Q: What sequence folds into this?
């Protein structure tokens, strides 16, 4: 049976490092507050003129190198982001242009922190159907240019960072690859973590910037509670669908939202620390980029071996959540 297999991974963060102490210079916060509640120590921010597609391009070059493939061998592009370069068109077409590959399809996904899992599911389905041989899947985010970096926005602003992760997927007939994906959404929670404007209901001409509706808003406690329970459920869903136990899982990579959330999930599942990979300490929450960035680093550190059973899970704004089980 045909399925998609990840044959190359790459990640990129812009050079500028922003520590918790740096944030404490522009808002009323502290390194201790941020570390204790989120595990984050630093994040990367772009300099002026660098956009989401630029980060995606850098990560893609590394994924192509890792897979020993060339851009022209890509049949389709999927780019997940909540921070596109422009309102429209999406950043997928900008990435296509940077890669110099004309006229292949390019799809943007807007399911926030769950974007990589949704993209993986779509790519796998396309490959299973025989439509494409090779699909490029990228998560890329520039949060820093749209955060309220003042005390007013501190609950959200300290969490996020910029970065991109890319995965090249190829059709395989063997045992390796994506075994299953599981996608969920519940729109009644849309306003628990959102950017309200600008949008079709609140277009720029009527926007009063002093109301700050263009900055992300989050009900932190509610998001935390839902995240822990849904992560656990959707991981169990993936394991049950494939008739495997959590003990058989070699590595769990959850969307890097908050180290406390990841640890709560790991402790509930009674997994030893070495079976979970986290890097939020260095990058903050990079939304759609966080899972491919973590996979890319885990691979580089030798923590992903052929034959490993790897579970990915994400939860975020929407609410959206999902999981994937992969035989590496
Ligand atoms: N620095 C210092 N103080 C801050 C702060 C910051 N960056 N952000 C908020 N505070 C203050 C609040 O104003 C509040 O003060 P008050 O009690 O005087 O009103 C207090 O800290 C809240 O602290 P606490 O109750 O300990 O916060 P918390 O335990 O709920 O943690 C989050 C806050 C945001 C870290 C937590 O709710 C969280 O991680 N939620 C999930 C976020 C997430 O993962 N989002 C992405 C999902 S994909």
A:
């Amino acid at each position: 049976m045909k399925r998609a297999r990840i044959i190359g991974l790459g990640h990129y963060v812009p050079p500028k490092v922003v520590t918790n102490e740096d944030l404490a210079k522009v808002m009323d916060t502290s390194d201790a507050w941020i570390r204790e509640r989120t595990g984050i120590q630093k994040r990367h921010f772009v300099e002026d003129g660098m956009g989401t597609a630029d980060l995606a391009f850098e990560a893609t070059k590394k994924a192509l190198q890792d897979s020993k493939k060339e851009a022209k061998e890509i049949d389709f592009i999927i780019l997940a982001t909540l921070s596109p370069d422009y309102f429209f068109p999406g950043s997928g077409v900008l990435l296509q242009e940077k890669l110099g590959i004309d006229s292949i399809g390019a799809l943007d996904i807007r399911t926030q922190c769950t974007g990589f899992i949704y993209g993986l599911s779509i790519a796998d389905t396309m490959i299973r159907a025989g439509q494409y041989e090779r699909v490029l899947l990228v998560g890329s985010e520039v949060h820093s240019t749209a955060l309220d970096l003042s005390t007013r926005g501190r609950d959200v602003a300290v969490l996020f960072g910029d970065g991109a992760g890319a995965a090249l997927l190829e059709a395989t007939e063997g045992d390796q690859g994506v075994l299953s994906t599981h996608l969920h959404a519940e729109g009644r929670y849309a306003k628990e973590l959102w950017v309200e404007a600008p949008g079709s209901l609140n277009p720029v001409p009527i926007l009063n910037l002093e109301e700050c509706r263009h900055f992300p808003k989050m009900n932190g406690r509610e998001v935390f509670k839902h995240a822990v329970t849904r992560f656990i459920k959707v991981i169990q869903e993936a394991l049950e669908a494939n008739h495997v136990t959590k003990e058989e899982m070699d590595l769990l990579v959850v969307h890097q939202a908050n180290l406390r959330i990841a640890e709560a999930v790991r402790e509930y599942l009674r997994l030893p620390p070495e079976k979970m990979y986290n890097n939020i300490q260095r990058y903050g929450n990079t939304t759609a980029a966080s899972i491919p960035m973590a996979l890319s680093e885990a691979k580089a550190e030798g923590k992903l071996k052929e034959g490993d059973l790897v579970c990915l899970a994400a939860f975020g704004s929407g609410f959206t959540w999902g999981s994937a089980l992969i035989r590496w």
